[in-house]
Amino acid sequence: MPYGKNDDDMKVKTKLYISVIASIGMAILTGVVLFISMQQTDEAEEENRIAVAIAKGVSELRSITFDYFLQHGERSRIQWQSKYDSITRLITEKEFKTPEAQIILQNMDRNLKGIKPLFFEFIEIYEKGGGVIELRERLSSQIILRTQAMLSDAYRLSEAVRKEMIATQRVGNILVIFTIGIFVVITIATLYVFNRSIAKPLIRLHEGTEIIGRGNLDYKVWTGTKDEIGQFSSVFDRMVENLKAVMASRDELNREIEERKQAEERYRTVIQIAMDGFWLVDNHGHIIDVNDAACSMIGYTRDELLNMSIPDIEAKESLEDTARHIRKVMEAGSDRFETRHRCKDGRIIDIESSTIYRDINGGQFIAFLRDITDRKLAMEKIIRYSEDLSRSNEELQQFAYIASHDLQEPLRMVASYVKLIERRYKGRLDKDADEFIEFAVDGANRMKEMIEGLLEYSRVKTYGKPLVPTDCEGILSDALNNLQMTIKENNAVVTHDPLPDVLADDVQIGRVFQNLISNAIKFRKKEEPPRIHISAQQEGREWVFSFRDNGIGIKPQYKDGLFTMFKRVYSRKEYPGTGIGLAVCRRIVERHGGRIWVESEYGSGSAFYFTTKEV
Length: 615
Fold this sequence. Notes:
Number of strands: 12
Helix content: 55-70%
Radius of gyration: 42 Å
Largest sheet: 5 strands, antiparallel
């Protein structure tokens, strides 16, 4: 409103109208700003709630996946499907405002859709009899990697949404403060006009009572006069100060009571919805509070547990051990340990307890309990499996010993006598007899080669050297020296890029190099000399080696079985060999934590790849 020299001529009623209109306008403006700010804050908090729920759901999905890998239970599979559906609903429930959150959600949706077929493929393989261990391990590794990626994305989403929520709240607070500031400025300006233009103490007193009546206890009615009205205004100001002190004390008390109620309610809610058991115990071991999870875990009702103490449930420690344990926790302030509890139905369960001591109300222990009985049983199964695996390895080593001694000795005897027959009687009998003798000699030689190949295959993991930093340039040089005659006879050209140092068994990786080079020379085209190029490229924390040739290539139908033992693509007359070399290469690469594969077009050469870890 305009302020000037003639504002004293304005009627008090008019000034009151203008003041009221300005106040209402600012109140409406403040309300609108508050409404918009609260609405934006609610949206941000809703996004934060969904993000937190997604993170929790992914974490629980990961835990259920591990449970199924350990127990293969129907219940874990049902829980997994339920948790998968709930996470899917959460991801598609709301469209987040920030592009970063949308991108993270899309990435999580892709990972989530990719996990389901892998998980059910794992289930199908297990229910059909377990399948190949390597395939199950590969599927479980892919599932774990995808769930870990989703968990990382969930934490990123939660952090991005939390930052957006904080930014929204900060902007809202700034707008509210700015609006309130404007409101305060206009109010002060209006009061200034009233103070300056209304000269009569009675009007000033009336103005003060109105302002104080609206709740502004900081306003002073004092008129500056020493007459009765001035004395009255002074007394009135003191009365308002006393009232303000009383109101402040009351508000502070109410606020403290409300905060205590809210804190207690939050405490109750968190404890009751917790999946782990919880109880509160005094320093004598008596239970003074417990949640539903603990009741369900041990089988007693809440009222029954509140009339019991720790020794009534403890199944591992004696009374003296329990008392000693209580003193230890009191001295240390906290402890995490395993014990055993006796349930109401007589069962004994294994418990992991995380206990904190608080020196209040005579001393209290806060304990969170987790039933680890299933985990203990799973560990026992793993130990038994490890023992069975150890026995299996011993049997495999025994087989290798037999193959290298007991089986080869009679085979050498058969081969020697057949060759003796060939030398003495070849050409002296009929043509069929010579052919039969040739078949016998060839069969004995091939059996010897196959046994030696089996022996080499079985010794890859049991007789390998430790993996150490290894110079691949030196490995290639040794392999080329070993193949020098073969390379020269076939006019082969072998080139290579600079090769790195890797973590490897030099003898075994040298075997892979030599086998892949000799195969490239063996399966060459008749019309041109073989050319082989070797290179390596780093991808992440591993090196990818490639062996490219200009040979005859591989037909598509033979690629899948190429690394299978005794799987031959061509006849033995065309290309001699036992069919074990590539199987040995795959076993060596897998021992080094890598993988091996081939890319080939029939008639246009092949490219063999394998990976190994960086130093």
